[in-house]
Each structure stands twice: as C-alpha cells, then as structure tokens.
Write a structure and sequence with these properties.
212 residues; mainly alpha; Four Helix Bundle (Hemerythrin (Met), subunit A); Butyryl-CoA Dehydrogenase, subunit A, domain 3; 0% strand
Length: 212
C-alpha cells in the first residue's frame, strides 16, 4: 500500500467518543473481546501516522515506520491498564515511538534522517537540540546512529510523568490544559515536568558526550 492510499483509509476511520472508547476498553480487558481490541487499534491508527510522519523521510521509509509503529500500538493496547487513569494516547505514543526508533536503528535508517529534523511535526526541538553542544563534528553514519540511540535511551530512563509530558508535547501536540487533565496535575506542574525532562535528558547526554 502506498502512502496516499493509506491516508485515504485513515479518513474512513470512525473516531470514538470518550464514552465509546471506555466501553471498548472495559469489554476488551474484562471479557477478552477481540472485536473491541480491533476497534481500539483502528481508532488509534492516526496516532501512528502522526508519529511516523514527524520525521521528514521518503514515502517508503515512512510506510515501514508506520508498519513498525502499528506493532508498537498493538503491544500498547495489550499491555495497557485502563484502570490507572492515564490517557492511553500518552502511553501508546511511547510504545509506538520506541518501536519505530528500534526499527530505524536496527535497519540503519537513521542515515536518511537529519539530526535537524523535528522530533515531531510542528515542533522546533530536534535531535540535535537534545544533544548538548559538540555534536557538529559527528560525521559517520555509525556515530550518527549511536548518538540517536543515546537520545532514545535517555528518553526511556525518564520518570513516568516526565515521559508522559514530553510524549504529549512532542508527539501529540497536546495542549498543557489537556495534559494536566489527563495526568491530574496542575498546568504549572506540566511546564515544570517538561523543563525537568529536557534538562534531565541533556544532563544524561552531557555525561555521555564528555567521553565521546
């Protein structure tokens, strides 16, 4: 399937209301209803598309990323605890993004991605921004891949709420108010977590760069 066909299929998806989604989660998790599972996966397929197209890559690579991201989405649906009160979109974004990054690292696809490409569409922060000063001298693809892997590892080591906030901000374009409601936190705390998360990533990468 080419990207244009995939986009047409996305437009046919019926977007669920909150009540409909909650009912599907309940029936899937408590009654093991596979039809409900399929509907949840379909409902969140646009999230996979949004994350995958955040990188400015060619169509073939994007379709591969969408395929891997969908696997991450399925894993997220299967492992998600709907009773925790955390928005599934925040939880799933981490799984989807992690699966895509693992695929790109394994297949050497980071060679076609720019360190100056945004982490997601509409955002100014790039992979280079998350790396501290000193990345300009990195030239070989092997070094490039390794640096990006360090960013991913740093993201994975963040506390849960910081991961959730950064995923919401950079992968879903969530408004602070919506994130605050999803995580049951104040808006000021959301901003604090965002700054802490970025600072923590830069700190981890700073220690790494000192030994590069």
């Amino acid at each position: 399937m080419i990207l244009s066909q995939y986009v047409k299929e996305l437009k046919k998806i019926h977007m669920l209301s909150r009540e409909e989604e909650e009912a599907l989660w309940l029936q899937y998790k408590e009654q093991d209803d596979m039809d409900c599972r399929s509907k949840i996966i379909e409902h969140y397929q646009p999230l996979v598309f949004k994350i995958a197209t955040g990188w400015r890559l060619n169509e073939t690579v994007i379709m591969d990323m969408i395929q891997e991201g969908t696997v991450g989405l399925i894993e997220a649906v299967e492992k998600f605890d709907h009773q925790r009160g955390v928005a599934f979109s925040l939880y799933a974004s981490q799984r989807i993004r992690g699966r895509i990054l693992n695929y790109m690292e394994k297949e050497g696809k980071f060679g076609v991605a720019s360190m100056d490409s945004p982490l997601s569409a509409g955002e100014d922060i790039t992979l280079r921004d998350l790396l501290v000063d000193g990345t300009a001298g990195v030239s070989s693809q092997a070094e490039h891949n390794y640096l990006v892997a360090q960013v991913k590892n740093a993201m994975d080591r963040l506390p849960h709420n910081e991961q959730a906030v950064l995923s919401g901000v950079f992968l879903e374009d969530c408004e602070p108010k919506q994130l605050a409601e999803n995580l049951d936190l104040s808006i000021s705390h959301i901003y604090k977590l965002q700054k802490q998360g970025i600072r923590r990533i830069r700190g981890m990468l700073s220690k790494f760069m000192q030994h590069w």
